[in-house]
Amino acid sequence: MSALRWGIADGWTMTRRNMAHVVRAPEEIVIYFSLPIMFVLVFGYVFGSGMAVPGGGNYREYLLPGVFVMTMLYGLGATATGVAVDVSRGVVDRFRAIDMARSALLVGRSGADLLRALLEMATLVVCGLLVGWQWRHGVGDALAAVALVLLLRLALTWVGIYLGLVVPNPDTVSVIVFPVAFPLTALSNVFVAPELMPHWLGTVSAWNPLSATVAASRELFGNPGTGGDSWVAQHPLLLSIAWPAVLIAIFAPLAVRRYQRLSR
Questions:
Q1: Domain extent for 221
Q2: Given 49, 153, 215, 252, which residue has the most CB atoms within 10 angstroms?
Q3: pLDDT per residue as tens digits for the range 38-65
Q4: Contacts 24+ apart (CB under 8 A), 52-59
Q5: Count of domains forming the chain
Q6: Contact, 81 vs 113, CB < 8 A?
Q7: At what angle do helices 59-88 and 26-41 cross, to 10 degrees?
């Protein structure tokens, strides 16, 4: 039990250390939010009147849950860059030399990213309300939707930690993340419903891990664009939990194993 308390205490210390970097560099948050806000403005106002929503409804209400999830995906880059910077500057070696739980660095990074994601979600919800988005169901359902989005972010955080541990330098992160994140977002239901795509493309979009969380959050928020005849469309809540669980089961052990190799 004492070892567990030690690990939690050291993990919280590293969480506060990582959050301090965010506070000292607020310009990073401004730059980071610029992309999803731009998508809201461009797709919501410029193209919104010409975008179709299955079953009808306001396109901005359809769009915002997708923007929430898209922001979590692009947060993968910030995670990987932060880890890669620590490795390249020898921070990992310095912390390893002191009397600190070995798990503290990874736990602290995931904890800080989750807190940062909560801050991002709060900001995006406020922005959404300002442009006319709202949730139609109760507060409990809305909080459940936010929890599912944060669960996906937690899973993507472990993907980012692993990526940050394997890249040769921090500059490589953006070269990898954007070419993967952009098509992953495009081939999802973030902007367009799978029913409106060609059949094979709609199938790919429906099984996209992002689409599961987007569809589940739309259902819980009471926003338009939910439903469908396929098994995937009828079980978004199940898949929105299953996909993050699979990602964590794969990338958390990979990240721990890679970190242990760095420790030798």
A1: 2-263
A2: 215
A3: 777 777 677 666 677 777 778 888 888 9
A4: 52/193, 52/196, 53/193, 53/224, 53/225, 54/193, 54/195, 54/196, 54/224, 54/225, 54/227, 54/228, 55/224, 55/225, 55/226, 55/227, 56/224, 57/223, 57/224, 57/225, 58/132, 58/224
A5: 1
A6: no
A7: 150
